[in-house]
Amino acid sequence: MLELEEYLIAHTDPEPAYLAAINRTTHLKVLNPRMLSGHLQGRVLAMLSQMMQPRSILEIGTFTGYSALCLAEGLAAGGRIHTIEADDELEELIAANLQLSPFAGQVVVHIGDAKQLIPRIEEVFDLVFIDGDKREYQQYLELVLPKVRKGGIILADNTLWDGKVLVGQGSKDPQTAAIMEFNNRLSADERVDKVMLPLRDGLTMIRKR
Ligand SMILES: C[S@@+](CC[C@H](N)C(=O)[O-])C[C@H]1O[C@@H](n2cnc3c(N)ncnc32)[C@H](O)[C@@H]1O
């Protein structure tokens, strides 16, 4: 871990024990455990959610449930988080992980492609976390924006993509090219306010006007 990240974590609240357990089992059992938000970003997601006290949250890309449970910490009484995961092999682990937390009853897991499922979820969202396939971010944004209330917040993860967005337009890697295109289009998008933060792998905060 980088020295700066160690210092930030040392001066940030600890993860709840169930999240530390999910982090450990994800590293032991699942491919690409680095996809999990982790301690520092998890506490940022929890803090933002607590500040908003949303009634309805949507997450695209559940993975092992870590970030969904961080976002759930801020839900208003009776509120719910819908989270969508395309990989059905993760379904059992997600269900088991949710049960470790106090929020299992407030998390609705949808297994399938977010592009198909988002139009079928009839909710107005206060908060959305986009963390699915990097090549699909623009499609997710177009699908969720009409379902977000005015003033609602969309968070997009990995918008620095390991710093590869800085290499310029020559990039042939489709993920990098798509994230660069998403960032460029978003910066000129007058439907929303936006600010890009250099947190972990880049977190962009988007507010619907
Ligand atoms: C970076 S991981 C999510 C990490 C998780 N949000 C966290 O912070 O712990 C991305 C997840 O999105 C899922 N995914 C990719 N494309 C998707 C799609 N079209 N619909 C739903 N999930 C998708 C992947 O299977 C993967 O589990």
In short:
This protein is α/β, with parallel strands linked by helices and 209 residues long. The chain has helices at residues 3-10, 17-29, 38-52, 66-72, 91-99, 114-117, 137-144, 174-187, and strands at 56-60, 80-85, 107-111, 125-130, 148-157, 192-197, 203-208.
Q: Which molecules are bound besides the chains?
A: S-adenosylmethionine
Q: Quick one: CATH class?
A: Alpha Beta
How many domains, as an integer? 1
| CATH fold type | Rossmann fold
Element-level helix/strand string? HHHEHEHEHEHEHEE
- Record the strand order, biggest sheet: 3-2-1-4-5-7-6
Task: Report the sheet-strand fraction.
Answer: 15-25%
SSE arrangement:
Elements lengths: L2 H8 L6 H13 L8 H15 L3 E5 L5 H7 L7 E6 L5 H9 L7 E5 L2 H4 L7 E6 L6 H8 L3 E10 L16 H14 L4 E6 L5 E6 L1
Parallel strand pairs: 1-2, 1-4, 2-3, 4-5
Antiparallel strand pairs: 5-7, 6-7
Helix pairs in contact: 3-4
S-adenosylmethionine (SAM) binds next to helix 4, strand 2 and helix 6.
Task: Describe the 3D structure.
Helix 3 runs parallel beside helix 4. Strand 6 and strand 7 (203-208) form a beta hairpin. The protein has a single domain, classed as Vaccinia Virus protein VP39 (Rossmann fold, 3-Layer(aba) Sandwich), CATH 3.40.50.150. The chain is 37% helix and 21% strand. 37% of the residues are buried. The chain has helices at residues 3-10, 17-29, 38-52, 66-72, 91-99, 114-117, 137-144, 174-187; strands at residues 56-60, 80-85, 107-111, 125-130, 148-157, 192-197, 203-208. Strands 3-2-1-4-5-7-6 form a seven-stranded mixed beta sheet, with helices on both faces. With 209 residues, the chain is of the alpha/beta class. S-adenosylmethionine binds at residues 35-37, 60-61, 63, 66-67, 84-87, 113-115, 131-133, 136.
